[in-house]
Amino acid sequence: MSQVTTSPAAGIAARPERRDIGLGRRYAAERRFRLYGMAAIGFGLLMLFLLLASVVSKGYTAFQQTMITIPVEFSERIIDKTDPQKLVTANYPVVARDALARVLGVEETDRAGLKAVNGMISDSVRVQLRKLVTADPSIVGTTRTVTFLAHGDLDSAFKGQIDLSVPEDKRKVSDRQLGWMNQLAESGALSRSFNTGLFVNGASSRPEAAGLGVALVGSLYMMLIVLALSLPIGVAASIYLEEFAPKNRFTDIIEVNINNLAAVPSIVYGLLGLAVFVNFAGFPRSAALVGGLVLTLMTLPTIIIATRAALKAVPPSIRAAALGLGASRMQTVFHHVLPLAMPGILTGTIIGLAHALGETAPLLLIGMVAFVADVPATPMDPATALPVQIYMWANEAERAFVERTSGAIIVLLVFLILMNVGAILLRRRFERRW
Amino acid sequence: MSISLLLLVIAAIGVAGYLFGSRRASALAGGRLSSLHSRPGYYGSFVAIWSVLPAVVVLLVWVVASPIYIGSTIRDGFPEAVKATSQAERNLGYNMIGAISRGLTVLTPDEREALFRDASVARGVLGARGVPLAADPAPYMLTAADDLNRMTKASRILLSIVAIAAALAGAVLSCRAVAPRFRARNRVEGVMLAGLVGASSIAILTTVGIVASMATEAVHFFNAVPAWEFFFGTVWDPRFAAAGASGSSGQFGLIPLLAGTLYIGFVAMLVAVPVGLFAAVYMSEYASRTVRSVAKPLLEVLAGIPTIVYGFFALVTVGPFLRDLSAELNGLVTGNYASFIQAQSVLTAGIVMGIMLIPYVSSLSDDIITAVPRALRDGSLGLGATRSETIKRVILPAALPGIVGALLMTASRAIGETMIVVLAAGVAARMQLDPFEPMTTVTVKIVNQLTGDLEFTSPQTLVAFALGITLFVITLCLNIYALYIVRKYREQYE
Amino acid sequence: MNIMSETAVEKALDRKMNDISFKMIGKDVSVYYGDKRALYDVNLDVRENTVTALIGPSGCGKSTFLRTLNRMNDTIDGCRVTGRITLDGEDIYDPAIDVVELRARVGMVFQKPNPFPKSIYENVAYGPRIHGLAKTKADMDAIVERSLQKAGLWNEVKDRLDEGGTGLSGGQQQRLCIARAVAVSPEVILMDEPCSALDPIATARVEELIHELSANFTIVIVTHSMQQAARVSQRTAMFHLGNLVEENDTDKMFTNPDDQRTQDYIMGRFG
């Protein structure tokens, strides 16, 4: 005290009217700093835009497919209907080629011409015509109007994706084929239609015939498994940790553990799945079941963290009220706390599921990178998943696969957007402020 | 009785137990429910739990244990000559017995007889029934397969009897326990609590599973390749190490992969940290509410995009763009239009990964920055500091520990990231410093080694687990340290 | 304590006799938070080198008014100020006025001590540093020493200037914050309940400090303790429900206020 009263009362005597506190310089720094911030956000948003624009611009055409509709003569010359074995092995591509050649007026002697005609038709025509014939052998010898897929290169050309300024011999589509294409388009034999094949077909080495059917079913199985396992387990674990667990070493370890599991690289879960589910437990490789289990383990920490936050947000007064009426702790939790926390839990679950839907790396390791042509009937059958299909297509070199890949990404993103919008709506609708 | 049917029966007993238990409790109460300790439903649940739980436990134990027991019995019955052969050969034989036993169940009695008369036709007969065999079975296998079928059948029947008996016994015993003062609710809640504890220990089990599975496989690997050659080897070239020829040195060298991982991660952080930090600062300190409400969720969209999409973006857009750009630049300067950036390069992977990490940095830092008390901000502004001075000199220094934690978490994500590098970084394991050249990472090699045919005995496959555990340990250390820092930081301002 | 404050009051009165000059003048000041109005046409003049206390029940707008004096309200979203506040005759809400410069002239000490998580030295040097008030290290040392001395903290901390400011006791922290404000050499110091987080002994130290500072600075202090207002201030303004009820010499206010509401409040009938 004494020290204050004796301290020199030296005031600041003559203060200049206006001090120079470097305002100009400081405001310049301020503006610069602000600009950096805006530039950073701008950069982030620009990248988001570029990413989406790049995918959409490359992929929106994948939802349309070029089809050729012409009368096809199922000539007995080529298809021997006397022997069912030969019915299967007949040279169907030639049937389609000849049909198209007839429409285009290409002579049968013009070998180069026929080859070019063949190059306009997708290889998948073999399977398609074979199916038609084996289903009804009586059509052999008749002429039917058939719609089949155009070759992937022709599809690209028709969508205007091939640079015509490139010299002809470096293009995949010759000038002659282009002429035919325009001729067919004018007559209406060649047209674009909605690409249902993209959603139902399985794997194919021909881009025009490759589809997401197997991947969609595989992803659906996995999401159902993840939902059925991770939601109850995650909620149960969170309820224990948040409402019952005593504060001791064990719960502390679980706590740290969950936080760390949420940050473990996803590929490590793939290794776990491979070693435990495939190698040790003997589940089939490539099966949606294993994928679902791996993704469940990966999603659990996310769901537990979200659920605990939701439970924590329920005010203690609710618990006190229920306990005060003589409810047991279990009853308090299940009758009062859990229902109130449900919107938050579901939001967290949807976001966790969305994350799992887009996850690729662990699925590669458990063998879901597989050429699966048939839609899996059960979760034990080999399947692929949406992101894995994208990965496999991305590794294909052909131009038409880039379109397919982008299309698949659009499908994946649409699913993710729907899930996230659902989560947001759920939160908006049920959000409660205490 | 098949397992699923058995489960159904047990479930039915459980439901019956529930109904019976709750009825009995109501009846005992005689209309005065308040004389019961618990609501009738709890008595029902108590009975149901005691009907189902022991039976299911019996079922599970049986399903796991019985094949082991039957297997060893069958093996004991092998002729002495077979017993003398190697372990692998006996396993092969046992597997064939399994296949035959499956086949026997689909044969007609006639075919069966033919089979036992002459073992050499077995392959053909079974093959026609859709059960392919790898070789002609020895006669002892047929009898063994028959034994196997018989024992399996017996085991099934025994299991059905035991499980149903357990269910019924549980139901009857627990029903007799029902009495008005019996604390059914507490018992039921005890079981529920055990279930909750079980669910939360799955988190521990997962970690144990990760560590144990990877450690076992990694140990197998280190038996074939010395650990120091793995950890300090500078050459990664697994193909030339033919199976068994493990002595050749340096072919599973971790160093080039680690170098690539860290280099790409470094480039990614170089992009993500300034952008993310400035974005976070602008969001939390400058942006108006409207800007914030639009820009923040949009930036977070970047975090919701699957990494495979980033990988594709890098592969078809960013990589070619950088390559063409470098060609143009080179052409402008030297007149030689050759690109000096490869489409797959450290730069491509790093930049795209950086973009992916922006929202992580920004939202983590945003949380950290907003946790700095308002009083500090006011104190600085009240002294006449500009906003940027306040941020640079007060808020960021105060938030520094938290931000460092956030950056460590981001770095661990960069190290563990897979899909972007798989598509954009390349597969060549090289040690070099040119960011325009491709390099490869630990994660890429894990994927490479484990796609395609797997042999859990070859070091080529097992090395993936050694890589995996290395990756796991690195990210775990980063995360634990980061969580520790962030927790300390938050406590400081609470 | 009382004796001391009375002598101080006399001294201040003497000074007032000689020259009454108004440092800050508030005219028809109203403040809105969004649609909510927090202040109603307040007219309050702040005399130079005088301690003016703002009192009133909580939520009456006294802190709001204080924060309008150096535009700290600007940092609150949706806050709007109408009316006119001048500092030496200049309208501080004039767009031409720079808020950074204004705050360098009108410093502020907050309710809770809020030292920066830096060393004691750096805490005090912060203001002079950002404003470029010290040319050399020696200048800065001098400013820091002088400011700490003015805040009566020098003897307590001179040997540990490098230690963290957050390690000090609550009262020391608040005096550090005052030193930090003084270091910028402001003309006015605003104090928002500076002692509410302190124990009685620390409070007494800060109150003494306010006395001493009033020789060189114009001080406006918000307090919810009427005893404190009586002890430290020469002028007192009473706020109620966003209105300025009465502004008067402190001793008149506490003995014979003009307004019935002031009387009631001081007698403890509401608040």
**Main sheet specs of chain C:** 6 strands, mixed
Q: What is the number of helices of chain C? A: 11
**Helix vs. strand class of chain C:** alpha/beta
For the record, give the distance between the C-alpha atoms at the N and C termini of chain A, rounded to a whole number. Answer: 48 Å
Shape type of chain C: globular
Low-confidence stretches of chain A: 1-16
Nearest-integer average pLDDT of chain A: 86
CA-CA gap between termini of chain C: 25 Å
Using brief descriptors, characterize the structure shown.
A: 434 residues, mainly alpha, three-stranded antiparallel beta sheet, disordered N terminus, C: 271 residues, alpha/beta, six-stranded mixed beta sheet, 11 helices
Structure overview:
The complex is a heterotrimer of chains A (434), B (494) and C (271). Chain A is mainly alpha-helical and 434 residues long. Chain A is built from 18 helices and 3 strands. A 3-stranded antiparallel sheet of chain A has the order 2-1-3. Chain B is mainly alpha-helical and 494 residues long. Chain B is flat, with a radius of gyration of 33 Å. Chain C is an alpha/beta fold. In chain C, helix 8 (200-213) links the parallel strand 7 (188-192) and strand 8. The model of chain C has no long low-confidence stretch (mean pLDDT 87). The chains are: A mainly alpha (434), B mainly alpha (494), C alpha/beta (271). Chains in contact: A-B, A-C, B-C. At the A-B interface, helix 2, helix 10, helix 11, helix 12 and helix 13 of A face helix 8, helix 10, helix 11, helix 12 and helix 13 of B.
What's the topology here?
The complex is a heterotrimer of chains A (434), B (494) and C (271).
Chain A lengths: L1 H5 L16 H37 L4 E10 L10 H6 L2 H13 L6 H8 L6 H11 L7 E7 L2 H7 L16 H13 L2 E5 L2 H4 L12 H32 L4 H13 L4 H15 L7 H26 L2 H9 L4 H30 L2 H5 L20 H9 L4 H32 L4
Antiparallel strand pairs in A: 1-2, 1-3
Chain B lengths: L2 H27 L10 H37 L3 H4 L3 H18 L4 H9 L4 H7 L10 H39 L6 H41 L2 H6 L22 H32 L2 H16 L2 H28 L11 H25 L3 H9 L4 H30 L2 H6 L17 H9 L8 H34 L2
Helix pairs in contact in B: 1-2, 1-7, 2-7, 2-8, 4-7, 8-18, 10-13, 10-15, 11-13, 12-13, 13-15, 14-15, 15-18, 17-18
Chain C lengths: L1 H17 L3 E12 L2 E12 L3 E5 L6 H7 L10 E9 L2 E2 L7 H7 E4 L10 H12 L5 H14 L3 H4 L12 H14 L4 E5 L7 H14 L4 E5 L3 H7 L2 E6 L2 E7 H6 L4 H7 L5
Parallel strand pairs in C: 3-8, 3-9, 6-7, 7-8
Antiparallel strand pairs in C: 1-2, 1-4, 4-5, 9-10
